[in-house]
Amino acid sequence: MRYSFISKKLVAVTLLITGFVSAQGHEGEEVETGAHDLKTQIKEYIDHHLLDSHDFTLYSYTTDQGEHKYIGFPLPVILWDNGLKVFSSAQLEHGEGVAEAGGNYYALYHNKIYKTDAEGTINFGGHHGEETHSEDAFGENLVVDDSHPTNEKPLDFSITKNVVFIMLVGLLMFLMFRGVANNYKKNSLPKGVGRVLEPLVLFVRDEIAIPNIGEHKYKKYMSYLLTVFFFVWIINLLGLTPLGVNVTNNIAVTFALALITYLITTFSGNKNYWKHIFWMPGVPAPMKIILAPIELLGTFIKPFSLMIRLYANITAGHVVLMSIIGLMFIFKNWIGSPLSFVLAFALSLLELLVAALQAYIFTMLSALYFGMAVEEDHH
Amino acid sequence: MEKLIEQFSFGLFFWQLLLFVGLLLLLRKYAWKPILGAVEKREEGIKDALEAAEAAKKEMQNVTADSEKLLKEAKAERDVLLKEAREIKESIIAEAKEQAQIEGDKVIKQAQATIEAEKKAAVADIKAQVANLSVEIAEKVIKEELSNKDKQLKLVDDMLGDIKLN
């Protein structure tokens, strides 16, 4: 036993040096296959984590009988499929069951709801019109990566886990900031949580809004800037908790935020702003004609970059962090696991910074775009 | 990109947009406006207070300068007054001295005149008394001398002797 321990350690150190920590060759073929399965499992787990979920699951495990157990609670599923269909997500049994509502059957496949028959059959279509083949919805068989289900997708307005957290953050922000606001009625100095929040509010005003928009026009954008700053920051921070929330790594969420920035920019654009887009002053006429479509496209690219930046940064953070945590289970040795623990810890600290930084960048760039839209002609 | 579009959940987008705009409107009414208003009011108050303090400082400096000026003026005035008083005093003393001198001279002269008159009277009186005394003495001497015959004769002889000599 002792000998095996030391030999493992030695091997681990050697492998660490050569950069192949995970390959513990001397343990035999069986472990090798096991590790491979584990890797697939971790990858699937990460993929699953990045997706939205119709249940509020804190923890899940598999019993010795191979039965999946979930700790958490179901959330309401709201579908629009020739009429409103509402049922509890418990009926979907985490993708292992078929829900019946109003004579239609629905099943989960990769966290999306599809309309199925009573048995929950999911049909798959090949990528380039390849032969269509059926799979069991319960995912027992392996699925060809390129194939997509051809089943009809109803419009899904379900209160998913992310929606629940958006609501919670909204409620939290409302209670927090209304408390701060009410405190000012009694005394002019902030108290309690206001002592922390007031400098942040002032930071948004003095470092983001005023320098980018200007002293005279920043006021009407303050509400949006403050709301988006605190919303993104708090929800990013929640993503780092073990609750498994990941709101800002949904493109739908960042798209909604970027859309609001785009709409505010477009509707507050003054004559000068549109002139700079369609008839750029100070350049020769042919250049003006070339610049107009580029500038017009730019107005869409700017909020688009906002959307992708926030989404990509948070998603990347989650993937890397979870991969490193996953490495612990792959290494299962004295060197690798603590190493990946330390790495995961350091990365978590970095992610704390990223959470605030992305909120700052989103707010700052939004303010910059508003500033461009309301800038007066200096010529 | 394809995966992103595939992942896009319209439901989540809908809820995010709805909840976020709702949150934005609620916070604007119940949080941001009161907070920013209160902070601005406070900043305004601080600015005013600072300006007031600055003004008070300036006022204070003015007051100090004024009082210093007043003090200087008062000192100068006092010096002038003192000088005048000294001059008056000196002139009064000088005048008094002069007056006294004149008065004294007058008194002395009167006294001298009186003394002179007194002396003259005394001298006259003494002269008269001396004459009387001389007469009386001469009378008594003569009476004594001429009390007997011998003596009368002797006197005649002496007198005659004197005449012979001459």
TrEMBL record, chain A:
The chain crosses the membrane at residues 163-181, 224-245, 251-270, 310-331, 343-370. Pfam families: ATP-synt_A. It comes from the Bacteria. It is found in: Cell membrane; Membrane. Key component of the proton channel; it plays a direct role in the translocation of protons across the membrane. PANTHER family: ATP SYNTHASE SUBUNIT A. Belongs to the ATPase A chain family. This is ATP synthase subunit a. The lineage of its organism: Bacteria, Pseudomonadati, Bacteroidota, Flavobacteriia, Flavobacteriales.
TrEMBL record, chain B:
The chain crosses the membrane at residues 12-32. F(1)F(0) ATP synthase produces ATP from ADP in the presence of a proton or sodium gradient. F-type ATPases consist of two structural domains, F(1) containing the extramembraneous catalytic core and F(0) containing the membrane proton channel, linked together by a central stalk and a peripheral stalk. During catalysis, ATP synthesis in the catalytic domain of F(1) is coupled via a rotary mechanism of the central stalk subunits to proton translocation. Component of the F(0) channel, it forms part of the peripheral stalk, linking F(1) to F(0). The b'-subunit is a diverged and duplicated form of b found in plants and photosynthetic bacteria. GO terms for molecular function: proton-transporting ATP synthase activity, rotational mechanism; proton-transporting ATPase activity, rotational mechanism. Gene3D superfamilies: F1F0 ATP synthase subunit B, membrane domain. One of its GO terms (cellular component) is endomembrane system. HAMAP family: ATP_synth_b_bprime. It comes from the Bacteria. F-type ATPases have 2 components, F(1) - the catalytic core - and F(0) - the membrane proton channel. F(1) has five subunits: alpha(3), beta(3), gamma(1), delta(1), epsilon(1). F(0) has three main subunits: a(1), b(2) and c(10-14). The alpha and beta chains form an alternating ring which encloses part of the gamma chain. F(1) is attached to F(0) by a central stalk formed by the gamma and epsilon chains, while a peripheral stalk is formed by the delta and b chains. This is ATP synthase subunit b. Belongs to the ATPase B chain family. NCBIfam families: ATP_synt_b, PRK14471.1. It is a single-pass membrane protein.
